[in-house]
Amino acid sequence: MSRFVLITPDAEFDQRVRQAVAGGLPGSVQTFFTNVLPADPSELFGALNQEQFEVLILGPEVPVEEALRLATVLDVRAPELSVILVTEPESGFVLQAMRSGIRDIMSPAADIAQIRIMLERACQSFASRQRTLEPKQAHTPKGMVIGVFSPKGGVGKTTIATNIAVGLGKIAPMSVVIVDLDLQFGDVASGLYLNPEHTVTDAVTPSASQDSLVLKAFLSVHPAGIYALCAPKDPVEADEITPEQVSRLLEQLAEEFQYVVVDTAPGLPEVGLAALEQCTDAVWVTGMDVPSVRGLRSGLDILRKLDLLPETRHVVLNMADSKAGLSVQDVEANIGAPVDVSLPRSKAVALSTNRGVPVLQEAVKDPAVKGLKQLVERFNPAWRATTQRQLHRRVVV
Q1: pLDDT value at position 394?
Q2: What's the sign of the alpha-carbon dihedral 366, 285, 357, 323?
Q3: Helices marked H in the chain — which ranges?
Q4: pLDDT class for 396, splitting at 50, 70, 90?
Q5: Residue 229 half-sphere exposure, CB side, CA atoms within 13 Å?
Q6: pLDDT digits (tens, 9 = 90+) for 57-113
Q7: Are 244 and 194 in contact (CB under 8 A)?
């Protein structure tokens, strides 16, 4: 069976590919000496006397626009297939190619060693996608998805979300990702002082939704030992992202990371509700003012009626101030739920937000820092196990 299929009229390139395969890769190459691509993938599969091949190489002199069109169709019909395009990459073209389903781009001048390395990588990607597309075992553990919500804006939701992510990064380094689902006006990038090359828009493309390796390539690495997936740079792109795509994105990330922290837009938009359905934990944030408290009460009432409240809930009172005219007891009475963590108003937190360096990233002494650490600890498996034992003892007694 041919693992590699090459389409190109370039005989010299064909020889280089064959030498690369013969130099250590199992399988053989089947070449179609033409620059005309099939209009339908079934024509290609019909011309091959085999059920499956792993890597399709669209070689030199193949029209690039036709190559992108074929890759887009194959991305749906045969998502496990690795498609390599042989062309000189131009500025901005790589992202366009990946969105079309191209897995890698190879220079026409690539030597035999470079071709071998790229084909090995394509085969590994094929195997990874096959595993991804296989039905997941029921016992496969998934990561915790922690959504941070607030019906009202301006209550410090993003600050809390970024600090949760940074704090969890100390518990599980490089096993935490924060996702900005405030798709129009998200501030996770500025909150973490990041200038991301890729955003949620890239992460919900067909190629990323079908291949976790591609998805991970769109994540930004943060110095605190976490990953970030930031909101689109252009608010218009938010309209192109569907709730179904968001659900799939969070499912994928939960399979790859121990913790997925989701910062949502204010209110209860469709994308936010889709995220809520994927959450194992919901952090509800309110300020110490009447509009925020009433908004949270109304939001919780609606979600109770829709049966969308996750089993594990954490209510955070942010910017608590004894001079605000409300007490913690007033807040609890109005929302009909206890306040789990109270964060006092803090100049240190405000300064850290403006700097783009979460307070939990540095050694800052402040009462709000203590509260944030308590919040992060609620997602520590050791804390949760202890709490469950205590609740069990109370029930028994």
Answers
A1: 43
A2: negative
A3: 11-22, 41-47, 64-77, 93-100, 112-133, 157-171, 188-191, 200-203, 206-209, 212-217, 243-256, 270-278, 290-306, 328-335, 347-355, 367-377, 381-396
A4: very low
A5: 28
A6: 999 999 999 999 898 888 877 888 889 999 987 756 776 787 778 888 899 999 999
A7: no
